[in-house]
Amino acid sequence: MTWIGDNWPMIWDQLREHLYLALIPMVLGLVISLPLGYVATRFSWLANPLVALGGVLYSLPSIALFIVLPAVLGTGILSPVNIIVALTIYAVSLLIRNVIDGLRSVPEDVLQAAVSVGYGTLRRVLTIDLPIAIPVIFAGLRVVTVANISMVSVGAIIGIGGLGELFTLGFQGGFLTPIVVGIIFSLALALICDVLLVGLQRLLTPWARAVAPVKEATV
Amino acid sequence: MIEFEDVTKRYPDGTVAVDNLSLRIPSNEITVFVGPSGCGKTTSLRMINRTIERTSGTISIDGEDINSKDAVTLRRGIGYVIQNAGLFPHKTVVENVATVPKLLGWDKRKAHSTAMELLERVGLDLKLAERYPAQLSGGQQQRVGVARALAADPLIMLMDEPFSAVDPVVRDQLQEELLRLQRDIGKTIVFVTHDIDEAIKLGDNIAVLRVGGKLAQFAPPSELLANPVDDFVEGFIGKDRGYRALTFVTADELPLADVPAELTVAADGSPVGWANGAAKLELVGATFQRGDSLRAALDAVLTSPVGKGVCVDETGKAVGVIDYGALTEALRP
């Protein structure tokens, strides 16, 4: 406890960096997967290759990616951009499946009704398809967020890793406290982000919980 | 009036869904497209709002080609009801109904109040307005579907097997209410069903289509029952068409006999039962009114314990009876 108190400014900085490195890729991943997923539902032959590609990308080892990316992107080896790009790739590779599944979860008769009452395509996608796909997309978003929070620590190997730097510190100094603190804070961060996402989802989808059929007096 | 002129729908794989269909659908009436599956009835319906584009021929509404304006604008002016209602699950009931007014850019408050009026009109409990579709029964959802189709007061309403997924009792109720609603609103309704009984009950005109998308016969139901053009139509109408045709003849002209002494009536004149020599009264069975069909009169005779059908007036008072002999005489063409 005293160790946390003594080192709070450093931990606080690492916490913020950790959050930033985890959440920016989550947002970027979503922004990229949404149009990509829509195109894949529009041209259904694209869906399977995209999901497969996502699987392959996700299986790339993160350390390898962190080290190769600077060469590919021309960024400095210590630039946080490397982490952000790498985690965005993982986010897209996971989210693409959920976006496709989510958009496909919109019932056919709902789509048909939307077209028939006079929705244009863009309006329909934004106000009918996407909202209905939210529960499935959010399931992916939660996985991505927790995975990102855990993966940011790996970045400590190349010197930018938020709370992961506490692990380096512990190993180098040969004492356990920073490692335990790093683990606890990472877990807490993951838990809080997950709870916030669940809360946001409930806020966005009040209809998803309204399933109890009302007892009918008349039809 | 909606006019089909030599309309054909051929899919890229060569399947012909609708074959050279020419048809005039009169305004302010219910026209039913009926036929077995694969007869192109839904395709024909959906070509009207261009959710399916025809391959050749023209479709016009009140003389104006439906391709003269863009499809989205066209659709906002045509109500549409489908099987299972197709309500938007993430919008409340009242938001669902207000959909088209909002698409048309109506003021929010006006869209909302119009939606509430329509919900009332289709007989939905207004307490359900803020619920989500998943919280409603199938019959309630279908009422909301009809309200949504009517929200922007379109001249035309297309209905694609709207009542086929609900149970028979609810279906019957929804059919009755559609007829009642139509008496008030007088829309041009095109209704698709595979159920000939539904077609006969609802249609002012019926288009019978055969597999391959060809029109077999287009006629009012009474004409269809009396004079089917060929074996296909006759087979499709079913065996008891003679009996069902009685639906279209009223009981107004039936020669009634006076109420006999054996018929016990209550203080208000309503029939209670037949004193048929037995110790106990035998219940009357079904009754009919002037204005009902011959089918109702025949039913009253058939269900009577003494072979006499009781005719009542609007207040339920017995005004006369008819027996087998007089009724069969009246049935003779």
From TrEMBL, chain A:
Membrane-protein topology: Multi-pass membrane protein
Residue intervals of the ABC transmembrane type-1 domain: 15-202
Main localization (coarse): membrane
The keyword Membrane appears for this protein: yes
Cell compartments where the protein resides: Cell membrane; Membrane
InterPro entries in the cross-refs: ABC_transp_perm/SBD, MetI-like, MetI-like_sf
PANTHER family: GLYCINE BETAINE/L-PROLINE TRANSPORT SYSTEM PERMEASE PROTEIN PROW (PTHR30177), OSMOPROTECTANT IMPORT PERMEASE PROTEIN OSMW (PTHR30177:SF4)
Similarity comment: family membership: Belongs to the binding-protein-dependent transport system permease family.
Protein's name in the database: ABC transporter permease subunit
Organism: Kribbella antibiotica
From TrEMBL, chain B:
InterPro entries: AAA+_ATPase, ABC_transporter-like_ATP-bd, ABC_transporter-like_CS, P-loop_NTPase
UniProt source species: Kribbella antibiotica
Record-level Gene Ontology MF annotations: ABC-type quaternary ammonium compound transporting activity; ATP binding; ATP hydrolysis activity
Family that this chain belongs to: Belongs to the ABC transporter superfamily.
Coiled-coil ranges from the UniProt annotation: none
Enzyme Commission no: 7.6.2.9
Protein name stated in the entry: ABC-type quaternary amine transporter
Domain ABC transporter intervals: 2-237
Keyword terms: ATP-binding, Nucleotide-binding, Transport
Highest taxon listed in the record's lineage: Bacteria
